[in-house]
Amino acid sequence: MEATPLLSAHKMGEFNLTNRVVLAPLGRCRSYGSLPQPHNVLYYAQRAAQGVLLITEANTVSETSRGYPHMPGLWSQEQVEAWKPVVDAVHAKGAVFFCQIWHHGRFSPPEFQSNGQAPISSTDKQVTPQVSHDGSILEFAAPRSLNTVEIPDIVNEFRIAAKNAIKAGFDGVEIHAANGYLIDQFMKDGVNDRTDEYGGSLENRCLFAAEVIVAVAAEIGADRLGVRLSPFADYMDCVDSDPEALALHMIRIMNGLGVLYCHMVEPRMCVNEKDGKLMIPHRLLPFRKAFMGTFMVNGGYDRGEGDKAIADGYADLVAYGRLFLANPDLPERFRKNTSLNKYDRSTFYTSDPVVGYTDYPFLDADVKEILD
């Protein structure tokens, strides 16, 4: 059997990982009423194995931070209790389990707000209509720019959600500061048009992110904390004029606190001029060199690209989304260098508890045999 760098061990702080293949955080819209369900237990347990790092789908930090239906949250004790069976099932398989937390900001529809009020953001600028994964057009309400005095309350929501994650038994927390959501809306100058201490200069725009990271680190420990960043992304009009400077500034903040890992998203894939095929731009090396903890990359990786990233020292870990979604035994398939199940994009965000969720087949055994 061919040796592969992706299957080599890695020590991430106190966590001993048996390989470098990580389940990326994937919103699946199957936690009815913002509560994890029995089928969520099965989904994560299927993908758990000894020493594998799993990151949950993002959990909202408050009722008004929601953006999509049937996404889990961690603002209540009821949600803490609902997550415990999921965590227990993953730990029973020997996996390491981190919980991602987020706030949608200006993407949140008015129906998730008190009395149908406007969602909050760093700005009152409205997101332009977007084309959804199914081809439909998404339109967004005009947001309300947060008053300066309100911002500490939002920071505290992240702290409480992180505290609740640890109460539920998670090994750590990942702050979702990427992909155009609330923290990204503050950091990037394409959105943030504030004139207070949270707007203007790079340092000011990153102040909200820094305060969230500091608060969560103080609550649970920086050695149990990861942060996801996407400096090059332009999701939902959220773009920055100097993504390199933005990422390096955030890394300096994280290094100063001793944050455990940095999870960074590659720029969008581009066309290779030599063969016309799509390729990963690989623009994250300066950030990998700057960050003092474990560095995780995500975005378009297959087995070969992942092996190269690890072998070249470009990353410590590689997070896989769609491939892990469709292949619950992805590390083992990589180990055997065998075929992969094809993912069904049409079922990514449907609410069915089985189809496109827990029914992807294993390589050598059925689901029951694997779980036993």
How are the SSEs placed, and which strands pair?
Layout: E1 10-12, E2 15-17, E3 21-23, H1 38-47, E4 53-55, E5 59-60, H2 77-92, E6 96-102, E7 120-121, E8 130-131, E9 137-138, E10 144-145, H3 151-167, E11 172-176, H4 182-187, H5 202-205, H6 207-220, E12 225-229, H7 243-257, E13 261-265, E14 270-271, E15 278-279, H8 285-290, E16 294-298, H9 303-311, E17 317-320, H10 322-326, H11 330-336, H12 367-371
Parallel strand pairs: 3-4, 3-17, 4-6, 5-6, 6-11, 7-10, 11-12, 12-13, 13-16, 16-17
Antiparallel strand pairs: 1-2, 8-9, 14-15
Helix pairs in contact: 1-2, 3-6, 6-7
What distinguishing features does this structure have?
372 residues; alpha/beta; 8-stranded parallel beta barrel; two-stranded antiparallel ribbon; 12 helices
Describe what you observe in this structure.
By secondary structure, the protein is α/β, with parallel strands linked by helices. The protein is about 30% helix and about 15% strand. It has twelve helices and 17 strands. It has helices at about 40-45, 75-90, 150-165, 180-185, 200-205, 205-220, 245-255, 285-290, 305-310, 320-325, 330-335, 365-370, and strands at about 10, 15, 20-25, 55, 60, 95-100, 120, 130, 135-140, 145, 170-175, 225-230, 260-265, 270, 280, 295-300, 315-320. The strands form five sheets. An eight-stranded parallel beta barrel has the order 3-4-6-11-12-13-16-17, surrounded by five helices. α3 (about 150-165) runs parallel beside α6 and α6 runs parallel beside α7 (about 245-255). The longest helix has 17 residues, at about 150-165. It starts with 9 loop residues before the first strand and ends with a helix. The model is unreliable at about 365-370 (pLDDT under 50).
